[in-house]
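ARCHIVE RECORD
Type: protein–small molecule complex
Small molecule: 0RA
Source of inputs: curated submission
Record status: active
Notes field left blank by submitter.
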Amino acid sequence: MAAPSYGAKDIEVLEGLDPVRKRPGMYIGSTGLNGLHHLVYEVVDNSVDEAMAGEATRIDVTLLADGGCRVVDDGRGIPVDPHRSDRRKSAAEVVLTTLHAGGKFGGSGYKVSGGLHGVGVSVVNALSRRLELEIDREGLRHRIEFVDGGKPLGRLVVTGKAPRNRRGTSVAFWPDPAIFNSEGTEFRAQTILERLQIYAFLNKGLEIRFRDERPGHEQEQTFRYTGGIVDYVRHLNHAKEALFKRVGHFEGAETDAEVEVALQWNTGYHEGIYSFANGIATIEGGMHEEGFKKALTNVVNKYARAKGLLKEKDDNLLGEDIREGLTAIVSVKMRDPQFEGQTKAKLGNVSIRSLVERVTNEKLADWLEEHPTEARQVVQKGIQAARARVAARQAREVIRRKTLLEGAGLPGKLADCSSRNPEESELFIVEGNSAGGSAINARDPITQAILPIRGKILNVERARIDRMLKNTEIQSLISAIGAGVGDEFDVSKIRYHKVVLLADADVDGNHIRTLLLTFFFRQMTDMVERGNVYIAQPPLYSTIVGKEKVYLKDDAAKERFLAEHPNHKNDFPRMKGLGEMDFGELKATTMDANRRTLLQVSVEQAALADGVFSVLMGEDVDARKHFIQTNAKDARFLDI
Ligand code: 0RA
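STRUCTURE (tokenized, with ligand):
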């Protein structure tokens, strides 16, 4: 076979992009699905930069029917004039075929840019089997195409007039299956949508349209937020109960750097500070977050003292007290962001700390003065959190002292199993005394222990941890599990490797399950993390077949049954509560290891129980699934 003949231009191209094809992971993280989607972000980033420079107002992202992705913006367009290094080539060709050739690195016209993501469209070109670039500039439409990882099919040519004198850049690319050979080249709309929405939140007024043209996946969605990060905070607090309606907002700048903050408290306990540098999520935090937190603690304490809400004898509120239930966005834009840390998601620039601190100290103090009602609520919530913190510590102390004095005394209500091997031991926490009675009869006494818990352990909507710890039922639970609680919880000491919540599918059952999940999540986190917590699934329906009673777990199981037994005429009475099942039924449907189904609780679910009640445990399984998928997958939106 004849060796392919390369001209000088080809050799240069190969030199330009070869490193990317050799080690794609260095440029896009991985060649799995994450890396694949990175290509989209890479292209969109450039358009977003154009928007940040005040030159673009709209970005269209389209997943093409043939598997490609097209990103169009209405910015200035990549420059088309002959490049200074090689007059035969257009600047656009050089940008697409050379690493780091983008305008961003020359610093021309760009105030800020992502930095990390700035490796540019050339990387996308290198990892695509085809890329089509169209530029509308100075009234003309220009076009150039690349194949096989960035080889130009020709030079940039003018194909006609730019329609309606529009300007902007269009990049369409088809990822190379030879590169993305492990998980394929099929984009996931949801993944892209989530990212686009964040871009839209962070760039006030920017319109981002998404369109999926793939057969069977057709959909369209537009994001545009005139409130920017204020809308973002509202969105994050949407499923929660806001402490007050207003979202606080302030900004400030110095040469080469600007900061914008939006914040609102909710009645929950989770602290959600989401920070960004040049539009990139800084999941590991960094200097901007440090500056914000320090100033927040300072400003709120000062305000509380000035208004007499904290007396001279009172201790200052801790940062964690003030941040309880806080949802905040801290967004900085700056030259040369330094990304550090394990995942390069921590902002290292020391100078930004003092800017954010200064701006927050000044502007947040103003905001509190201007909004005394909200300010008072913030302080009151902080004071309550501080009290709860002290009370929880005291309650833990009491429990610890009790176990020290009384040894490993087990609670009287516990019907323990005889096995002392945690691996095979199961603890069923059963709602209601009568249900507890059936469970004791239904169990395998060697491996299954029963702890009955009264239905109304706590008749507070959202129990605070300190109140939970003082509750005798919870104290029994702690000693039954036998591994301590809170900071002292030691998962290696748990007496049962399965801790199973068994409660009715009604309102009270949901309540107690949610409380217990919240408790486990906050006070026995490792146990949840290791997958030791389960939810028992008693059946929802039964029906009679011949002489036998058949149990059906849920509506889906009922549908399946009907499909398999089209002539079935008997009805499907809804199962009554646990207390009304006899022990034979309870054993057959819920407890017998060979016949039951248990739902293993993930950290995500437990986290959601901590913040979101109805959605997690509600009837609407689809809404729940959707919620968990969209909120918990991304660690930043996980309520931990
Ligand atoms: C280099 C210089 C200029 C703009 C761009 C690149 C640019 C790149 C992309 C990529 C996607 N959309 C884009 N829009 C613009 C500045 C050009 C000038 O000063 O006119």
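CURATOR ANNOTATION: The CA atoms of residues 272 and 327 lie 5 Å apart.
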